Amino acid sequence: MSADETNNDKQEVKESQHELSFLLDTSHPLLKMFREACPGTYKHSQTLSAMVEGVSLDLGLDVVFMKVACMYHDVGKMYNASFFTENILDNEDPHENLDPWMSYQIISTHVAHTTNILLNDGNFSDDLIKVMSQHHGNGVISYFYNKALKYSTKTSVTRDEDDFRYYCSRPQSVEAAVLMIVDHLEATSRSLFQAGKLDLTQVIDMTINNLLDDGQLDEVTMKLGDLKRIKLAMAKELEGTFQKRVDYDEVKKKEKKDTENKEE
Question: What's the pTM value of the predicted model, to 2 decimals?
Answer without folding.
Answer: 0.83
